[in-house]
Design a protein that fits this description.
The protein has 11 helices and 7 strands. By secondary structure, it is mostly helical. It has a domain of about 180 residues. The strands form 3 sheets. It has a two-stranded antiparallel sheet with strand order 1-2. It has a two-stranded antiparallel ribbon with strand order 3-4. Strands 5-6 form a two-stranded antiparallel ribbon. Helix 2 crosses helix 3, helix 3 packs across helix 5 and helix 7 packs antiparallel against helix 8. The N terminus is likely disordered.
Length: about 325
């Protein structure tokens, strides 16, 4: 599984290590079994702050905070669990309990993933935390309405993020959030610019429409029995008002399309980095003279520091091994 956690879609990102993820899932499971922290409708208020305390006691120097790191990482794992659970409920998909992996034909998975973007990164990669996440979230999913601790929690976090930032970013201050502080900043500016451009034409058209609506009220004020002397003017005002409101909705549709395109491009950039993260251990194992334990150490280093991961992938084949050896020496 990808070692990523992100807030919004870009700002304040960091990579999560395997150890950090293991500790997070362990304590999340503990809280899910504690009625003081999880009820019928999901986790109770303050549980992320409790998780922060528990993680800090286990990993004193990790620097993980409830907001944004833990919040966005839980959202990440919730989405991945949801996608996997949905697939396993369908024919053509199965679960390999030994390998901790999804079983399905690649063509079947690809077709399903076209309409379910959160499934990206789940094929051909072990999902080590799935069974534990199932124990945490299965009860909520079994209710049929996917209540608060699952999709509801995700929606709540999305709304809160939108209210606080109105940016397009990728998971947290963490690996993203791991992924990718650089492209997230571009996404943020793009969204803010789009939002402002949406407001300006809407306000102008709305003011025009309101002005014409006032004119119509003037016609009504002539009283019963009085004829409207200029019927053509009334008809023209009605027509103009209709056109003004139509223009407002055209502007809304156009700007929403621009925003959707920006989100799509941000997701594509994230997915490319996710693919690199998922394959880094495999790539290091291909190098001659690198033992399995050394490969794990190097993979952990690369996933924790994005700039080193980029250097590794951009380096020519004949330099990759030397770069790996240098990382091991500096460790």
């Amino acid at each position: 599984m990808e070692q990523e956690g992100s807030r919004g879609r870009g700002k304040n990102k960091r990579f999560w290590t395997y150890e950090e993820d293991n500790v997070l899932i362990k304590y999340l499971h503990e809280l899910s079994c504690d009625p003081r922290w999880k009820g019928e409708s999901g986790f109770k208020s303050g549980y992320m702050n409790k998780l922060e305390e528990m993680i800090k006691s286990a990993l004193p120097n990790c620097g993980l905070r409830a907001d944004p790191h833990i919040e966005s990482r839980i959202k990440h794992w919730s989405e991945k669990y949801s996608a996997m659970a949905e697939m396993l409920a369908l024919s053509g998909f199965g679960w390999d309990a030994e390998k901790k992996m999804l079983q399905a034909e690649k063509v079947v998975f690809d077709e399903w993933a076209k309409a379910h973007k959160k499934a990206k990164g789940l094929y051909g990669v072990p999902f080590l935390h799935y069974e534990t996440l199932a124990e945490i979230y299965a009860k909520d999913k079994a209710t049929g309405d996917l209540s608060e601790s699952f999709v509801g929690a995700i929606d709540s976090m999305d709304i809160e993020i939108a209210n606080n930032t109105m940016t397009i970013d990728s998971d947290e201050d963490d690996v993203n959030s791991t992924t990718h502080s650089t492209h997230s900043t571009h996404s943020t500016h793009s969204t803010q610019s789009t939002t402002q451009s949406l407001k300006r034409p809407m306000k102008k058209e709305f003011d025009n429409a309101t002005s014409k609506k006032t004119k119509l009220k003037d016609f009504k004020g002539k009283g019963k029995g009085q004829k409207v002397e200029n019927v053509d003017e009334l008809v023209a005002s009605l027509h103009s008002t209709s056109e003004s409101f139509g223009k407002i909705f055209e502007d809304i549709n156009a700007n929403l399309g621009t925003m959707a395109n920006a989100w799509s491009k941000a997701e594509e950039r994230e997915q490319k980095m996710d693919d690199k993260v998922n394959k880094v251990l495999e790539e290091v194992m291909k190098l001659d003279g690198i033992s399995p334990s050394e490969a794990l150490e190097v993979a952990t280093i690369l996933m924790a520091e994005e700039h080193k991961l980029r250097i590794f992938y951009q380096a020519p084949s004949n330099l990759k091994k030397q770069y790996v050896l240098d990382l091991l020496k500096k460790k």
